[in-house]
Design goal:
Elements (H helix, E strand, L loop, with lengths): L1 E9 L2 E5 L7 E4 L5 H13 L7 E6 L3 H37 L4 H8 L3 H7 L1 H7 L1
Parallel strand pairs: 1-4
Antiparallel strand pairs: 1-2, 2-3
């Protein structure tokens, strides 16, 4: 069963309403407690297993805060993807430079890495650990 927990900050608590199940109003101290509390409340009202209740949390926030959160999430995902690409490119650069006969120290200077990190990124080391 899918339900929505509409949550509003009220003092030090989150006030919770579940529009899909009449009469379910509750509260939680922390946002991370909402899903479990709502699942338990819905289970009691509908006589179902709490594990069968899927809760979507919708906090009442200003539009500016919603936009800021959405943008922060988008940028974080983009940064994670960029880091993954950068890591793959760094491994290719290390492999190429070492294949051209550069020393580990020289590669470290060129890529602004410690010799130890160059060794970690080295294809020989990676093939040994696989």
């Amino acid at each position: 069963m899918k339900v929505t927990a509409k949550v509003t900050r009220s003092g030090g608590w989150w006030a919770i309403e579940v529009p899909e199940v009449r009469g379910v109003f509750t509260q939680a101290k922390r946002l991370d407690q909402v899903a479990e509390i709502v699942a338990d409340a819905v289970a009691v009202m509908k006589d179902v297993d709490p594990a069968s209740v899927e809760v979507t949390i919708e906090p009442a926030l200003s539009e500016n805060t919603r936009v800021d959160i959405s943008e922060a999430q988008r940028l974080s995902k983009a940064a994670e993807a960029a880091m993954s690409k950068a890591s793959a490119q760094m491994r290719r650069a290390v492999a190429g430079a070492l294949a051209e006969g550069l020393t580990v120290r020289d590669v470290g200077i060129l890529l602004d890495l410690s010799p130890q990190r160059v060794s970690q990124l080295s294809p020989k080391r990676n093939s040994l650990s696989a």
